[in-house]
Amino acid sequence: MESTEQIQRREAARAALALDDEALLRACEVYTFVGSGPGGQHRNKTASAVRLVHPATGLTVTASERRSQILNRSAALHRLRAGLASLTRVRRPRRPTRPTRAAQERRIEAKKRVGRRKAERRDSRHW
Fold it and tell me: Which residues on neighbouring strands pair with residue 33, listed in sequence order?
């Protein structure tokens, strides 16, 4: 059973997916920061990494693999859309299944084989 919070998150994600890129960016909190890793002086001195936070769903994505803030923003927006799409999917409930008789017999036979092997080992130790 789903909670009302999960249902609200799913509805907010659906509404956000319907928005175009500019409107979705306006609905998000955009943070820029200095990314770490390779890229040299340009990357180490400029705030080119981007973090997008979508407050309605609580989803956070970051992109810092490019040296350009614009490219990182578009990559983060792409990841945000993928995350929102995954939030909209409803998981099908799991149906509990029972093992077949043949599977039960195979499992029991395997246990018996292991037991016989251990018994043989036990007997062969005492010469």
Answer: 49
How far apart, in whole angstroms, are the C-alpha atoms of residue 7 and residue 103?
39
Nearest-angstrom CA–CA distance, 4 and 84 = 17
Containing 50, the helix (H) or strand (E) segment is strand 49-54
**32-64 pLDDT, tens per residue?**
999 877 777 777 788 889 999 999 999 999 999
Residue 49's DSSP bridge partners are 33
Beta bridge partners of 54: 59
Q: Which residues, 6 or more positions from 18, have their beta carbon under 8 angstroms from its beta carbon?
A: none
Question: CB-side exposure of 67: number of CA atoms within 13 Å?
Answer: 8
* More confident of the two residues 112 and 1: 112
Residues 122 and 100: their CA atoms lie apart, in Å, by: 33
What 3-state class would DSSP assign to 61? strand
Report d(CA 31, CA 89) in Å as an integer.
Answer: 28
Computed from CA positions of residues 16, 17, 20, 21, in that sequence, does the dihedral angle turn out positive or negative?
positive
